[in-house]
Automatic annotation (TrEMBL):
GO terms for molecular function: diaminopimelate epimerase activity. The record marks H168, E217 as: Could be important to modulate the pK values of the two catalytic cysteine residues. HAMAP family: DAP_epimerase (MF_00197). This is Diaminopimelate epimerase. It catalyses: (2S,6S)-2,6-diaminopimelate = meso-2,6-diaminopimelate.
Length: 285
C-alpha cells in the first residue's frame, strides 16, 4: 500500500503529514510505528493526519499519532505544521482556521511573517482531569500553583500537573543541560500516578520572560521541541510566580513564544513550521 506524505517540522519536532482528504488512510499501530522508524521508515516524532471536518463551524479535523503508534489528543508544534500543510496544498485559503482535534477545537492563524499562532485553549489544572492521581499526597503551594511530590529514582521531584488537552508534568531545574531528562523522563512518563502516562518537562528559568525547556515526550522520547510542553511549562511558571507573559521558550530546536493571561484564558503559542520534502512510502499490508 503506497501512501504520499510530506515531511515537516516545527522547531525540530518532526512530523510525517498525511492528506486523508485525497487518499484513504486507515493504518494499524505497527504501520504508524514503521513510518516513524528512523531506520526502516521515514522517521518522525509524530504522524499528523489531515481529514475533512466532522462538525459544523470547523474547517478540518486533524489526528495525531506518536512514534510508538498510539493516537493522542493534542500536539502544539503539529498544529502549526498542519496550517502550513493545508495552506501549501491549497486545501484552504483561510488564514485563520478552526480545527477539530481529539481534545477539542483549536484555532491556528497564519501570520504575515509566515510564523503561525495557535490558540491552544485554556489549560486544565485539576489533577484528576490531567489525569494525575493525587490521592493521599501532601501538596505544597507556590504562588498560585500546587506542587505535587513525585518519587522518581529515589528522589522526590516537585511537579506541576497541567493538561493542554494532553498531560504534562513540569519541574523547574537549575540547568536543563545537566537535568536527568533521559534517565528520569521515561520513569516520569510511566509513573503509576499518571494513568494515561505523561509528557515530562524540565524547565530552567533564565529570567521572567525567558526559559530553557527540554521535554521527554510520552510515546516519542526526548524531542527537539514540544509545543504543548512549552505551553504547560509557561502556565506552570506563571502560576508559580516565576514568569510573566509573554515568555520565549528556548528548546534544542528553536524558540517558541508563549503568552497566557491567567486562569480560564487560552494559551497562545507562536512559532515556525517548515516543509522538508515530499515522498511516498510503501507499507506492508
Ligand atoms: N510534540 C507535541 C506533543 C505530541 C504528543 C505528546 N507526545 C503526547 O503524547 O501527549 C507538541 O508539540 O505538543
Amino acid at each position: 500500500m503506497k501512501i504520499k506524505f510530506t515531511k515537516m517540522h516545527g522547531a525540530g519536532n518532526d512530523f510525517v503529514v498525511l492528506d486523508a482528504i485525497n487518499q484513504a488512510i486507515f493504518l494499524r499501530p505497527d504501520q504508524w510505528k514503521l513510518i516513524a522508524d528512523r531506520r526502516f521508515g521515514v522517521g518522525a516524532d509524530q504522524m499528523l493526519v489531515v481529514e475533512k471536518a466532522h462538525g459544523d463551524g470547523v474547517d478540518f479535523r486533524y489526528r495525531i499519532y506518536n512514534a510508538d503508534g498510539g493516537e493522542v489528543e493534542q500536539c502544539g508544534n503539529g498544529a502549526r505544521a498542519f496550517v502550513k500543510f493545508v495552506t501549501d496544498k491549497g486545501l484552504t485559503d483561510k488564514r485563520a482556521i478552526r480545527v477539530e482535534t481529539m481534545s477539542g477545537i483549536i484555532e491556528p492563524r497564519l501570520e504575515e511573517d509566515g510564523r503561525i499562532t495557535v490558540d491552544m485553549g485554556a489549560p486544565i489544572l485539576t489533577p484528576a482531569e490531567v489525569p494525575f492521581d493525587s490521592a493521599s499526597l501532601e501538596s505544597r503551594t507556590e504562588g498560585q500553583d500546587t506542587l505535587w511530590p513525585l518519587d522518581v529514582a529515589d528522589k522526590t521531584n516537585w511537579i506541576s500537573v497541567v493538561s493542554m488537552g494532553n498531560p504534562h508534568a513540569v519541574q523547574v531545574v537549575t540547568d536543563t543541560e545537566a537535568a536527568p531528562v533521559l534517565q528520569d523522563g521515561p520513569l516520569i512518563e510511566h509513573h503509576p500516578r499518571f494513568p494515561r502516562r505523561v509528557n515530562a518537562g524540565f524547565m530552567q528559568i533564565v529570567d521572567r520572560h525567558h526559559v530553557n525547556l527540554r521535554v521527554y515526550e510520552r510515546g516519542a522520547g526526548e524531542t527537539l521541541a514540544c509545543g504543548t510542553g512549552a505551553c504547560a511549562a509557561v502556565v506552570a511558571g506563571i502560576r508559580r510566580g516565576l514568569l510573566d507573559s509573554p515568555v520565549a521558550v528556548q528548546t534544542h530546536g528553536g524558540v517558541l513564544s508563549i503568552a497566557w493571561q491567567g486562569a480560564g484564558q487560552p494559551v497562545m503559542m507562536t512559532g515556525p513550521a517548515v516543509s522538508v520534502f515530499e515522498g511516498e512510502i510503501d507499507l506492508p499490508d
